[in-house]
Amino acid sequence: MTKFILLYTSDMSMQEQVQQTEDQGAAEMQAWMDWGDRMGPALLDFGLPLGNGLTVTRTGTSPGDSKVSGFSFLEAADVAAAAALVADHPHLQNGSIEVLEAFPTPGAM
Hints:
Blueprint: E1 2-9, H1 14-17, H2 22-39, E2 43-49, E3 54-57, E4 60-63, E5 68-76, H3 79-85, E6 96-101
Antiparallel strand pairs: 1-5, 1-6, 2-5, 3-4
């Protein structure tokens, strides 16, 4: 099996996404938990929401402009199978998901 990182992207910041009623937040969280349950052992790590980033260069830092709002780790036979596993993901209501293969680090055990 191959490991994949799912990058959740959105035009809305994480701070904007969480500004909702308590009932809306509970329903959204339940949808994510239901998706996680359907994934079973294929979901290696639910990951975390992300935000408040900085872009760092050799010349300094500036406010980040990434559209990445979170990540998860998934295991599947190949990228097509990983994409199929996220086809009904609740995040797709707010944005998109990038499915990236995680290659082993050369020389690492």
